[in-house]
UniProtKB/TrEMBL annotation:
<dbReference type="InterPro" id="IPR050490">
    <property type="entry name" value="Bact_solute-bd_prot1"/>
</dbReference>
<dbReference type="GO" id="GO:0042597">
    <property type="term" value="C:periplasmic space"/>
</dbReference>
<dbReference type="InterPro" id="IPR006059">
    <property type="entry name" value="SBP"/>
</dbReference>
<comment type="similarity">
    <text>Belongs to the bacterial solute-binding protein 1 family.</text>
</comment>
<protein>
    <submittedName>
        <fullName>Extracellular solute-binding protein</fullName>
    </submittedName>
</protein>
<dbReference type="Pfam" id="PF01547">
    <property type="entry name" value="SBP_bac_1"/>
</dbReference>
Amino acid sequence: MHASIRVARAARVAAAAAAVMWSFAGAAQAQTELVIATVNNGHMIEMQKLSKHFEQANPDIKLKWVTLEEGVLRQRVTTDIATKGGQFDVMTIGLYEAPIWSKKGWLQELKPDAGYDVDDLLPAVRAGLSVDGKLFAAPFYAESSMLMYRKDLADKAGVQVPERPTWPQIKDLAAKIHDPKNGIYGICLRGKPGWGDNMALITTIANTFGGQWFDMQWKPQLESKPWKEAVSFYVDLLKNYGPPGSSANSFNEILALTSSGKCGMWVDATIAASFVSDPKQSKVASQMAFAQAPTMNTPKGANWLWSWNLAIPAGSKKVAAAQKFITWSTSKEYIQLVAKTNGWANVPTGTRKSTYANAEFQKAARFAAAEKTAIDSANPTDATLPKSPYVGVQFAAIPEFQAIGIAVGQQMSAAVAGRVSVDDALKASQVTADREMRKAGYYK
């Protein structure tokens, strides 16, 4: 009897010990590794540095970063999600991919808790990342486009720039301040080919002249009157008042020219305002002033809209951990953390109403009000004067647009360089776009 009790007791002790061992083993295995694919720009690199705060608060989650250049990132994540590769648990995607991928069922719906305050997200950005009222990606930072100009040069010319100028007013001012002998060009604009390079700007010009990429039957409209007028205006502006070699200039090249005082005006991403108004980076920081992107026949689609966002692939096995990380990195608290660490001038902008309502941010970023107005005025679902079948301001959110945008961008750059006429460039663009749309089965 006693022996059997001893045996039973020993068995119970062994079982209890085994249970403890299993629980320790379980704890060791419970750490979830999240693989995050992101782009190698300043805001994202800062997020990686600050992510130690997230790991300290969530010891059961380990973060592994894959940081890539924009083009490579886009290629890698597109291949992975289309083939259900499962390589990444969190992906950094643009406003272009978000609606396309969510409609294909490639992304998990995001369901952040009440503390996240979805209603604090700027409406234009939230709308661009939602389908049927459901959020499929969370914005890390966003931008629109705006006019940045040298107020000292405008004052000297006796011109007061309105808050929302027209393109003819911009042309008049460019003519007055253009002084190439003294190294000052009336206006600097993107000319480098690419759907996200020159075509981002040119599309907004075409929009405000009353143009659109495709009509309601998905037929390309590149030889329409608004496109001809818009592109002719843009090419003439750069030929007469732009710097030499404009057909090779994009954001970085023009940022360098503007910061060294060589551009009288520049229409580009709102993110540039923080650089050109920073005395550490710009010779003319104190002279820079800001207004809305110019309009022509309509204000619709004059300000572009872009954001970098975090999303979870549909097949992910780590949804809860991924959701937790995305909630942290796109929250109000994260913006406060960046402000505390690096100052309010360096927080990711363009995503939350509360950022723009913050007095310290307003003081650190004198372009803040103009930037918020620009973002708020952009509407990706209503960006053209005639009704259009696509979502997007400076792009059409369809898979075929990348190839079309790249081809058209090359024609526009050739027109700026004087290698082809505007009419020939638009004719070749129309042929390419029509071929791509037929091939994809939009019409016969």
